[in-house]
Amino acid sequence: MGAAFAGIVRAPMTSVVMIFEITRDYAVIVPLMISNLVSFFISARFQKQPSYEVLAQQDGIHLPTVETRQQEGQRQVAQAMRDATGVLSAEMTVQEALEKTKSSEFHNWPVLDERGVIGVITLWAGSDGHSALAWRNAAAASS
Length: 143
Fold this sequence. Notes:
Blueprint: H1 2-9, H2 12-23, H3 29-46, H4 51-58, H5 66-72, H6 77-80, E1 88-89, H7 94-102, E2 108-113, E3 116-125, E4 131-137, H8 138-142
Parallel strand pairs: 1-2
Antiparallel strand pairs: 2-3, 3-4
Helix pairs in contact: 1-2, 1-3, 2-3
C-alpha cells in the first residue's frame, strides 16, 4: 500500500508516516522506505509527471512547478503591499468617513490617531443601495 502511494502520488515519506501510523511497528520502516524509493524511481522513469498533476492540468488547474517557483524567486511583502492612500483620521465624524469612503475604490481603511493605527473601517454596500461602516478595533484584532 505504501509503495503504491509513493509511486502514484510521488510522496514516499508521506506514505512511510502513514503506514507507520497504521501499524505502529518500527520493523516495517526500513523495508517500507526501500520499497517506496524503488516505486518512486520506477514511476518517475515511466511517467515524467505525477498522475495527480496530469489530472489537475486536464481540469484546467495549473500548479506552479519547481522551475517556475525558482524563476519567480521569493516574493517580498513589500512587493505585495501598496501605500495606504485612503487613511481615515480618528477625529473624523461618521458622516465625514462615509463620504470619504464612498468615492474610493477600496473597501477597508486604517484609522489613525497620534499613536498609530487604532482600527480598521470596512464599507459594506447593502443590496438596497444603502451603505454601512463596520469598525474593527486594532487591539482586539491582534489578540
